[in-house]
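Data deposition worksheet. Section B asks for the primary sequence of the deposited chain exactly as it was used as input, without tags or linkers unless they were present during the calculation. Section C holds the resulting structure in token form. Section D is free text for depositor observations; keep each observation to a single sentence. Incomplete worksheets are returned to the depositor.
Section A, Depositor: J.P.
Section B:
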Amino acid sequence: MLIRNLRRLFLLVCLGALLPLQAQADAAKQPEDPGLVTGLLAKARTYLGMPYRYGGVSPKGFDCSGFVRYVFGSMGIDLDRTSGSQAKQGDPIDLAHIQPGDLLFFSTRGMRKGISHVGIYLGEGRFIHASNWRGRGQHGVKLGELASDYFADRLVAIRRVVTQLTPESKTP
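Section C:
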């Protein structure tokens, strides 16, 4: 319990310290194609409220990794199908350097079972993901808070794939 509370406190402190500095960091280290990140986040938001479907890979129904793969694929970035495989793509990122468009990986079935959930970081401590949690109004593509009790305890990796652009994703 003490370790869980300390981890949550650390996450909250890191996120709180990052918010005022994020604009400076973004200005100092621009992605290869800043329009790509903006487009990617805008595209992801268009699917808010779409239904959850285990194994789903389209707007008819998404699971978490199917949603992430679909959104990134629409921008010309090919990702693997499962969250565990996606967690091996791109570059590892420390929480202190997180930027919008980064992928967040969680162990929602216990740390021994490995990565089982993925979402796209939007900035200001929020992310978008497809979830099968069946609470009232909570099933499908929705926003999440990284510092929430549930997700703070389960965050295991952050990866950046936007810097690994494919030729199709670069537009003139």
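Section D:
The beta strands are 57-58, 61-62, 91-92, 103-106, 117-123, 126-131, 140-145, 155-160.
The CA atoms of residues 103 and 144 lie 13 Å apart.
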